[in-house]
Write a structure and sequence with these properties.
- The chain has 336 residues and is mainly α.
- The protein folds into two domains: 1-128 and 292-328, no CATH class; 133-239, no CATH class.
- The chain has helices at 3-7, 11-32, 62-75, 77-99, 105-116, 119-127, 130-151, 155-171, 176-193, 198-218, 220-228, 232-239, 242-247, 258-263; strands at 39-43, 46-47, 284-285, 291-292, 299-301.
- The longest helix has 23 residues, at 77-99.
Length: 336
């Protein structure tokens, strides 16, 4: 639509469309704004990389890692990390706002706020799980696409849902598990509600089969190595033992237990080992005598000098390497 046509529309319609973007943008800036001054985003699994290399191993997130590397080469790793963070936060708020099945501004704004401003998002952001947050942002849209298939099965809906699901798997494979649970519940509900409509049943199964075929095709670059036991995901699964499961399992509230903690969107395993305490404002020494940033202090202001090089190794998942030599921690090193 042309600019003139847009301004000829009723004010209420223009205001409603503006709110789709303005409210999610406001929420994202409220969270990320204080960190977006000059400096590096610094968290446990994303410790302010000064360079983002192309991935050297095939995994589900390889396309996103490559896109980040290209962006970092064009505008710097500092900007690329902040684009990823702001995009994930805005995307989560926008998806929750737009994908609510019904309601005006108030219920959509509430849904958007609750979906973005909660312990899960803050905890994962503080820990540096940026790809997980990007997948979390996509989850409402994927669930909405699935809902459209169940309500009105069609080839077009199957293609859109397949694209959303494949993209979700690229961002964070783990989120395919809750999506699968939602899918089973939604399909069973649709079948029960239309059990006498054989045409609906036929169209639903045809749409689901098409969607699954497209998802498998689009995800074959990491599904095939996974099935052959040679991909990053396959090696990670093979190396995971009971000790890892126990160490990274959800934690319960000391007084209320596990279920209330999970319902409140708490329960991240790092909550149990003091990762989110505010007990230290300066860097602490790790076993190698290098600076380890406190988890709550995310931004590293200013370009790091020789004495302020990021100390943590980046997660292999991001395919990022810091090729500089690690420097000893000094007593006056601070992240602020």
């Amino acid at each position: 639509m042309s600019g003139a046509g847009y301004f000829q529309r009723p004010i209420a319609s223009r205001t409603r469309e503006l709110a789709w973007v303005a409210w999610p943008a406001l929420l994202a800036l409220l969270i990320a704004g204080p960190w977006f001054a000059s400096g590096y985003f610094f968290a446990t699994d994303f410790p302010g990389p000064r360079r983002i290399s192309f991935p050297n191993v095939i995994s589900s997130s390889t396309p996103l890692e490559a896109a980040l590397a290209i962006l970092a080469a064009a505008v710097s790793a500092q900007v690329a990390a902040k684009v990823l963070i702001l995009g994930a936060l805005f995307g989560a708020a926008f998806a929750a706002y737009r994908c609510l099945p019904t309601g005006g501004f108030v219920p959509r704004a509430v849904a958007s706020t609750v979906y973005l401003m909660n312990p899960f998002v803050y905890g994962r952001l503080q820990y540096g799980h940026l790809f997980l947050l990007a997948g979390y942002a996509l989850l409402p849209w994927t669930a909405s696409c699935l809902r459209q298939i169940v309500q009105r099965p069609s080839r077009r809906g199957a293609i859109i849902a397949a694209a959303a699901t494949a993209l979700l798997g690229m961002l964070e494979v783990q989120l395919l598990i809750p999506l699968a649970v939602l899918s089973v519940v939604a399909v069973i509900t649709g079948l029960v509600s239309n059990r006498q409509n054989w045409r609906y049943v036929r169209d639903l199964f045809a749409s689901l089969a098409l969607a699954l075929l497209l998802v498998a095709t689009a995800s074959s670059y990491w599904l095939i190595p996974l099935l052959l036991g040679s991909g990053l995901e396959a090696r990670t699964i093979a190396a995971t033992g009971q000790a890892d499961v126990n160490a990274y399992s959800a934690v319960g509230d000391p007084r209320l237990g596990l279920l209330p903690n999970l319902l409140g969107l708490y329960g991240f395993w790092a909550e149990a080992n003091g990762r989110f305490t505010r007990s230290a404002a300066r860097c602490s020494r790790d076993r190698d005598g290098c600076c380890s940033p406190p988890a709550f202090k995310l931004p590293l202001r200013g370009r790091p000098s020789v004495g302020h090089r990021p100390a943590h190794c980046l997660s292999r998942r991001f395919g990022i390497r810091d090729r500089s030599k690690r420097q000893p921690c000094r007593a006056d090193d601070s992240l602020a």
